[in-house]
Predict the structure.
Amino acid sequence: MNQTSQVYIRELSEGEYGRWTRFVAESETGSVYALPAYLRALCRVTSRSFSILGAFRGDNLVGGMAMYMGKTEAGLVSADHHLLFYHSPVIRDYTTKYAHERTARQFTILAALEQHLRHHACDHLVLYMRHSLTDLRPFNAGGWRIVPRYTYLVTLDHADQIWNRMAPYQRHLVEKAMDQGVTCCDDGDFSSFYAHHLKTCRKKGLKPYLPEPAFHSFYQELKAENLCRLYHARLTDGRNAASLLVLGGPHPVSHTLCAASDPDFHGLGVNPFLRWAVFNDLMARGYTANDLSGAPLNDVARFKRQLGGDLVVNWQVIRPVSAGFYVRREMVKFRKRVVSRIRRTFGRGTAP
C-alpha cells in the first residue's frame, strides 16, 4: 500500500495523545468528548475503557475516532453515554480552491474509518456524529443504519445578538430574575448542584447520571483539566436556585452537559437568566457556540428553542449487529422481564 496516497488506521499510543488533542481542538468535527482527558475521567467513574484510532496519510494525522467501550451481559459495546453526548469520528479540515477536492479527501478518510470500524472487535457499535459531519455515504454504503438526531446550537457572537435571538418571553424572565437580584457565579458548589440534579431526575422519572461520590470525582477531574465550569443562579440570600455544568476545553464549541434547578424558583426566571448569563460568560472566554445537547419533543425542547439556538441535525449511525449479539441481548431482556414479573408477583424477597 502506498501510504502517501492512501489512508490507513492504527491505534494511537498514549504518548501520541497530545497530538490527538491538538488535532481535535483544530477540527470543526472535533469536540471535548473526543479528548483523552475527558474520556479518562469518564472511564474512571463508569468502569469502562477507551482507545483512540488514528487515520494517517503517510505520517500526517488526518482523522480518527475515540472509542468508548464497556462490557455488557450481551457483549462488548462501544457507544455514546448520557455523559458522552457525541461518539463521533473527527476528520481534518481542508481549505482548497475547489470544493470537490475537499469532499474527495474527507470522503477518503471517512471511508477508511468506516472499513476499519466495520470489522472492529466490539460486538455492538453505535456512533453519534456531530452535524458538521455531513458526508455519510461510506456508512450508508456499508449497510449501517442512519438515524437523524437533533440538538440546538447557540451561536456566541455578540452580546446584543445573543439577547435579541432569545424569545421575548424568555427575555422578560431574564429581566425579572435580574430585578429580583439573582446573580450568576461559578464557585464550584457541587453539593447544591447535585441536590438539584436529583430533583430534576425524579421529576422526569430518570436515574441520576452517576452516584454523588462518582459524579463529584468526575467533576473534580474535569475541573482540574480545565474542561468544565459549574455555574449557579444565586438568590440574594445566597441560595442556589439553578445550576449548569458546561464542558469547554480547547475546542471552540462548548457543551451544556447537565442542567438542574429547584422548581420552587422557576417563576423567578432563574433558568433563562442562568442560560443567558452563561452564554455571555462563554463568549467572553472565546467560545464560538454552545451545544444545548439535545432537542427532544417535550417542554425542555420548547424552552431550548426559545433560547435562540439553531436546530441542527446530528446522526446516530449503527453498525449491523451480529446474530450472536442479537440473541444474547434478547436473552438478557427476556431474563430481566421474567425476574421483574416474579418480583411484582411474589415480592422481592423470593426473586432469584
